[in-house]
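User: Can you help me understand a structure? I only have the sequence.
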Amino acid sequence: MPNFIFITGGVVSSLGKGLASAALGALLQSRGFRVRLRKLDPYLNVDPGTMSPTQHGEVFVTDDGAETDLDLGHYERFTGVSAKRTDNVTTGQIYSDVIAKERKGEYLGATIQVIPHVTNAIKEFITSDLESEDFVLCEIGGTVGDIESLPFLEAIRQLGNEIGRNKTCFLHLTLVPFIAAAGELKTKPTQHSVKELQSVGIRPDIVLCRTEAQIPDEQKDKIALFCNISRNSVIEALDADNIYNVPLDYHNNGLDEAIYSHFKLKPKKPNLKIWHDIMMAIKNPEEEVNIAVVGKYTSLIDSYKSLVEALVHGGISGKIRVNITWIDASNLCNDKNFSSNFENMHGILVPGGFGERGSDGKIEAIRFARENKIPFLGICFGMQMAVIEAARNLSLIEGAGSSEFGAVKSPVVGLLKEWVKDNSIVKRSLHDDLGGSMRLGAYECHLSEGSLAEKVYDKNIIFERHRHRYEVNIDFKNQLENKGLIFSGMSPNGILPEIIEYKDHPWFIGVQFHPELKSKPFEPHPLFREFVRASLNYSRLL
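Assistant: Let's start by predicting it. Here is the structure, written out as tokens:
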């Protein structure tokens, strides 16, 4: 049985529980331990797949096709451990499973209650599908005191008793605010937060204090006294200038030592060289590039969380600072000074998205990149818009468009009705439920010999993660290739276009999948690494 660390949060949301979990996982790895990270979300949606990205941020997709919380992206980027479907669950999923069992009579006529049936289902999820991990880090979404998270808190309270306190650790992330008018930090919110946690039967073993100012020793003593924990278990979590410095900050402030002490483990010397190297590259860039991201969810940058980090990773590998300029695609076509949006831009990226809003702006941005030989990367919807741009402006296909936006004369992008998954054919129709009905997860792609894509990947067979309902229509392939658009990546059966590029363009690639989901600071995705390098080369020509 592995050791379990349960991460809760109090006072306010958005304190960074996901980042804290990921950083702690990285610290445990640095000492040679195998880790697994999980997220329990209290909302009633079955998964975040149908939620607006402007409300909840991006949907992170795993290799096995689960639509999950964006925190799983943090977990993968910091630990390199690929998340699974069994690493994220919601209240909606738990209740759906419990009700389904009740309808089948599996509870033998019992009255179904939160305790024990819902809490048992949560405990089963937490302890299932484990292999040889030394630590399982389990983050509880929401804020302690919210009614939504109570079943999860009760479940981990029970687990703490069942597994034993020698195998479980409760880590509580809280806020120590700085009151500028008074010129001091206030510990009372933390005290109340811990009191709220204690009211549901959980005594935290470690209190991680998020703060914008250094906490004096006397304040730490006060927190320890009123939260009934040792002084060494009060850990300062100062605001970091870069998220990849968080593992180093936590180590310097003794978080991993506190974990060791709690579990009575024999200390192992950590190897943090990888994080020192990453921070060295970030803090001491030798060059910089400006990248324009033309999206439709720019009001909440967390909608593109993995994308932003992947661009940073692409820069880390070459000690290049990547400056991102966000351009709202919805307003782009109405801008009389269209080209001014791309002044001093060295690369243009069009990310994924759903729906017609902003599509014309994205198409015009792609046309600008193609005609002006600016390095371009189109992802998912971005690739589809690149194909439509070519169909309209190069192949002159009348009525070229996407059936996602309604009936079109020439659907160069259409509904994906059939694809192969795990040696079986998956079929769907326009009338199917939206949730979980897309092409999801990792799929094989074959690259054309001598293509830019093959050069970038340095291999001819790749596996990338997908999340889409629509696909480029293979029936238009010949018409498009006759005008210079190359289909350089295809599904194994040769039916589904996966990558497009132009031979007469210095660097232009569109991909149907989401490469940003697999990028890590210590292993940048090749597409982002080479896109940043191409943008740097372009900047030198200006």
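Now, to help you interpret it: Residues 3-57+91-277 form a domain with the Rossmann fold fold (CATH 3.40.50.300). The two ends are 59 Å apart (CA to CA). Let me know which part you'd like to focus on.
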